[in-house]
Write a structure and sequence with these properties.
This protein is of the alpha+beta class. The protein has 1 helix and 12 strands, in the order ββββββββββββα.
Length: 178
């Protein structure tokens, strides 16, 4: 995998590899892979997120107090947590004290942004396809507040993971309701 500090351009793309496999790769305009997400089973929400900074376990937790702990697999320590509210927006809190708002910016939940504590947009992640309805891939556009470091990579991986799980939850709720 390539270090995000060597990124050329201002955008990245998430690609799903295979129809049944839960494997995604984050690639730059240079066709290099910067991160991956691997689902650890067909009917699970457990994922291993990998980048040059390490491997992290992500798993959806809670019903009323939904959150995603970010566990460094090398040390088995929690290095951060994405907390989500009832509107699916939330806060990413990292072990170094940095916090970012995770904000839904579209009614169909196809576009999300991370905002830093100074109200600067770090990035926007969107599903690709017609109106974002074909949710097999996504686009990441860097904002003016983007700092290409470990925190940015964790943000990309946990943000994309949350978008996919929220979409699956909403689809299940819709189909159960009617």
């Amino acid at each position: 995998m390539k270090d995000i500090k060597r990124l050329k351009g201002q955008s990245l793309r998430w690609f799903r590899l295979g129809w049944l496999r839960g494997h995604y790769e984050l690639m730059g305009e240079d066709a290099e892979t910067y991160a991956t997400l691997d689902w650890k089973g067909l009917f699970t929400e457990r994922v291993v997120a990998s980048c040059i900074y390490g491997d992290y376990d992500l798993q959806w937790r809670g019903v009323l107090r939904r959150h995603v702990p970010i566990i460094d697999t090398a040390s088995n320590q929690e290095i951060g947590r994405l907390r989500l509210g009832f509107t699916d927006s939330g806060v990413l809190e990292l072990d170094n004290g940095r916090k970012y708002r995770f904000k839904c910016e579209s009614m169909l939940k196809t576009r999300w942004s991370f905002i830093d504590d100074l109200n600067g947009r770090v990035c926007t992640i969107s599903f690709t396809g017609w109106l974002g309805l074909r949710r097999f891939g996504g686009e990441v556009v860097l904002g003016p507040a983007a700092v290409l470091d470990r925190d940015f990579m964790i943000m990309m991986m946990v943000g994309w993971y949350a978008m996919i799980v929220i979409t699956q939850e909403n689809a299940a709720a819709y189909s159960a309701g009617g």
